UniProtKB/TrEMBL annotation:
InterPro entries: Gab1-4-like, PH-like_dom_sf, PH_domain. SUPFAM superfamilies: PH domain-like. Pfam families: PH (PF00169). Belongs to the GAB family. Residues 5-119 form the PH domain. It comes from the Eukaryota. This is GAB3 protein.
Length: 124
């Protein structure tokens, strides 16, 4: 686990990389949002295979990121089964992550917290 204060945790469904969207499955992962700035560590969004995993599958540095709710322009990349669900997008300089929350409230919490850490309001 990375150092930093845990801001938010929970299950989200994440997309594969954009080049592999058609061929690979969307996976349910345990996400942890950490704010490390006060301790000199980076602000990160980590995801794990499950809630009890010790090592993250990936650590996403939120140094330069944006976050927004799913829009019609994202429709081509989001699986049909998730279209009317609670989809939001985290965009870094390296990759765009399409994430699905269980409820509208959970999605709003994630978007708000990531926006605060990234020093952005939700992007248009």
């Amino acid at each position: 686990m990375s150092a930093g204060d845990v801001v938010c945790t929970g299950w989200l469904i994440k997309s594969p990389p954009e080049k592999k969207l058609k061929r690979y499955a969307w996976r349910k992962r345990w996400f942890v949002l950490r704010q490390g700035r006060m301790s000199g560590n980076p602000d990160v969004l980590e995801y794990y295979r499950n809630k009890n995993s010790k090592k993250p599958l990936r650590v996403i540095n939120l140094n330069e990121c944006g976050v927004h709710m799913h829009t019609r322009s994202d429709a081509a990349v989001v699986k049909k089964e998730f279209m009317n669900n609670h989809v939001f997008v985290v965009k870094t300089s390296f990759r765009t992550f399409y994430l699905v929350a269980k409820t509208q409230e959970e999605m709003n919490t994630w978007v708000h917290n990531i926006s605060q850490i990234c020093h952005f309001g939700p992007l248009d």
